[in-house]
Amino acid sequence: MTGKIAYQGEPGANSHIACNEAYPHLEPLPCRTFEDCFAAVERGDADLAMIPVENTIAGRVGDIHYLLPSTQLQIVAEYYLPIRFQLMALPGTKLAAVKKARSHIMGLGQCRNFLREHGIEGVTSADTAGAAREVAELGDSTLAAIAPRLAADVYGLEILAEDIEDATHNTTRFIIMSREQAEIEAGDGPAKTAFLFEVRNIPAALYKVLGGFATNGINMTKLESYLIGGSFVSTQFYAEISGHPDERHVQLALEELGFFSQSLKILGVFPTSEYVLV
Fold first, then answer.
1. 44 backbone φψ class: left, alpha, beta (φ>0; ψ -120 to 50)
2. What residues act catalytically?
3. Record's PANTHER family (predicted)?
4. What CATH number does the domain containing 33 carry?
5. pLDDT tens-digit profile of 81-140?
6. 134-157 residue pLDDT tens
7. How many domains does the structure of the chain reveal?
8. Which domain holds residue 258?
9. d(CA 8, CA 241)
C-alpha cells in the first residue's frame, strides 16, 4: 500500500479537495491527465484514484467513460462534492480591470452567468488550479482565474468575487477507482452496481434489456450511450443500478441483459453515498 490517492489536476483543484475530504488519511497525488490517474493506480503508484464523472450544472465529464472500457480498475466508492468557485487574481487587482478568466472548461461552464454579467471572456485551461497557477506566473492584472478557494491560498492570489457558480446546488459526483474490488456483500446496506454493455444488433434490443430491470423492480440510476468503433450504429452503454449482483432480482435482470447483449463488463459494486442538496 502506498498511502496515496491520485487525482487529475494541480494542487488546489476540486479533485484535490475531494481527496482531502473523503480520504484525509491518504496523500493526494496530482496527475496531469485522467489517463495518468488510471495508470498511477494500475502501476501501484497510488492505491486509489478520485475521478469526477458528472456535475449538476455542466453535465457529464465525457473523457472518463471512454477510459472505463479498457481499465481493469474497479469502482469502489462514490463521493459528492459541493462546488464553490471563486474569481481570483493578483493581489491588488480590481474586478473592473479583469478582461479574461482562465479555468477548466467545466469550471467556465458552471460560471457562465457571472462571466456574461461582467463582460469577462472565458479562456480554457487544463484544470482550475492550474489556471490559478498560470495567473500567478503571468503577472497580468487583467487576467483572473476561476478556481476553488484552496487554489488562492496555494498560489498567493486574492479573491475578487466569491461563490460565482451559476447555482447553489452545483455539485460534482466522483467515483473512486481501485485495483481491488470493494468489500461489500449483499445485505450490507444500499449498494450500486456499475457496468458497461453493448446490445446485440436485433430489433428493440435495448428495450428488452431495460425491461428486465423494470420487471424485477430495479431502479436504474444512470444510463448513457457512446458510439464505438467509428460507427453510428454500434453503441455501448454505461449504466448504474441500485442493488447488489448477489441479490436474486438483480441476478435475474443481469441474466436477461446478457441474453440481449453481446458484451457485459461489471465495473464495480460499491456502497451508495447519500447526495445532500446544499
1. left
2. 172, 174
3. PREPHENATE DEHYDRATASE P PROTEIN, PREPHENATE DEHYDRATASE-RELATED
4. 3.40.190.10
5. 999 999 999 999 999 999 999 999 989 998 999 999 999 999 999 889 999 999 999 999
6. 999 999 999 999 999 999 999 999
7. 3
8. 191-271
9. 26
